[in-house]
Amino acid sequence: MTDTAINRAGSRRAGIPHTPGEDGTWIFILGDMTVFSGFFITYLVYRSRNVELFNESSARLTQLYGVINTLLLLTSSVLVVTGLRAIRRRALSIAPKCFAGAFVCGLGFSVLKVSEYTSKVGHGITPATNEFWMYFYILTGLHFFHLLVGMAVLVYLMVKSKKERLTVKEFAFVEGGACFWHMVDLLWIVLFPLLYFVR
């Protein structure tokens, strides 16, 4: 299909299934998840070698922070899905608000994560404390970086969702941005129990 102006639905004919986003977006997402999978496996290997140390260190995490952050990201993903559907249905007033709400959820996650880091460092807990804390800071730090990139993507989605007409390429970028945000959510859903609950 040519890159011509289309309506806000960005449709490639309604009802015809297609892979959302650009091919390059999926290559990036799958590559990123492969890297994180390697980190997860490495973490579990080292945990199995020193279970007591990892359990004692993990017990010092504030699980409430993790629970709230999980709820925030799940809510943000629902809002992104709703925003994307609003674009397809040409709901000009709804889509930007949904992406803005998702951004606010990401902001809330950021505030809690920085608060958690600050609290731990204030108690003398740094990446140099032991292996668990090294992996904690590396894994959550990498995820936090992806979250910040995702928040920039959400700003892009907000801007694009206000346009009356989108090109095929623009809509593909919007879909790809939504997929990236879902990846950020999915990574946290794996990280949260891995760091906070696994014993």
From TrEMBL:
Under the heading SUPFAM superfamilies, the entry gives: Cytochrome c oxidase subunit III-like
The alphabetized UniProt keywords are: Membrane, Transmembrane, Transmembrane helix
Record PROSITE patterns:
COX3
Q: Where is the Heme-copper oxidase subunit III family profile domain?
A: 24-199
Annotated membrane topology = Multi-pass membrane protein
**Is Cell inner membrane there in the keyword field?**
no
Q: Which reaction does it catalyse?
A: 4 Fe(II)-[cytochrome c] + O2 + 8 H(+)(in) = 4 Fe(III)-[cytochrome c] + 2 H2O + 4 H(+)(out)
**Entry's localization field:** Cell membrane; Membrane
Provide the family line: Belongs to the cytochrome c oxidase subunit 3 family.
Q: Which Gene3D superfamilies match?
A: Cytochrome c oxidase, subunit III, four-helix bundle
Keyword Transmembrane recorded: yes
TM region(s), chain numbering? 26-46, 66-87, 94-112, 132-159, 171-198
**What is the name listed in the Swiss-Prot or TrEMBL entry for this protein?**
Probable cytochrome c oxidase subunit 3
